[in-house]
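thread: overnight batch results

M.L. [08:02]
morning all. the overnight job finished for the chain we discussed friday. pasting input first so we're all looking at the same thing
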Amino acid sequence: MSLAIRAAGLHKSYGGKPAVQGLDLEVRRGEFFGFLGPNGAGKTTTIHALTGVIEATSGEIEVLGMRVPDEIINVKRQIGVVPDENVLFDRLTGSEFLEFAGRMYGLDRDVAAQRSKELMELFELDLRADTLIAGYSKGMKKRVALGAALIHRPSLFLLDEPFEGVDPVGARLMKEILQQQVAHGATVFLTSHVLEVVERLCTRVAIINNGSIVAEGAVGELRNAEETLEDIFVRVVGGEKEMAALAWL
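M.L. [08:03]
and the structure it wrote out:
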C-alpha cells in the first residue's frame, strides 16, 4: 500500500536541545492514524516539519509521495491542516474566512463562496455566518478551522488536537465528517489527548515520547484483554508513578 507520510531519521533541535530525534514513521494512504504522546513529546514539532512550517535539522520527509521541503508548495495544495493554536483571522466572519481559505487553495470565487456556505451549514454555524470570528467560542473556532481544512477536498488531513474545547455535539459531528473522508479514500493524521476518541476512531497509532517513537501498531494489536490504550500509553511513556500524598489534601 502506498504511503501518505514517510519520515526517516527525522531530527529537529532548538538551540541544541532535541525536540524530535531519529523519528521513523510511515502512514498508509486511507488510514485514520493516531499520533500520541505526553505534552512536550514532539507531536506538534513533527506536524510542523511534515507541513513545512519548520525545516527539520536532518532526516527525510515525504508527504503524498513528494519530498519536503523540496516540493512543499505542491504538498500544501493537497493537505488540510488544523493546528493546535488558533490561526483564524478574528476580524473576518466565519463565512468570509472559509471563502478566503478556498481562494487561497485556488478555488474559483463562486465555488469558494458556495462551499463556504455549505460548510457553515454542515458545521451548524450558519446562524453565526455573519458574526466575526472574534465572537466565536473555542469550539466554534475549531469547527471553522476544520472547515478551512476541508474546503479544497484534500487527500491528507493533519489535525493537532482538533477536538480540544469542542462540546460533545460538535465533536461528534467533526468525527463523523472525518470518518466520511476516510471512507472516501482520504488519510487522517490525528493527535489527541483524549485516548478514548483515538481508540474509537483510529486504525493504527504511534506513541512518541522524548522525540522518539516508543510504540506503534494497530490498536487491536497493541491492546490486550487487561490493558486499554490509556494503560499502554501510561506504561510506555513512563507515567506509572506512585502519587505522593499531601497531608492537607
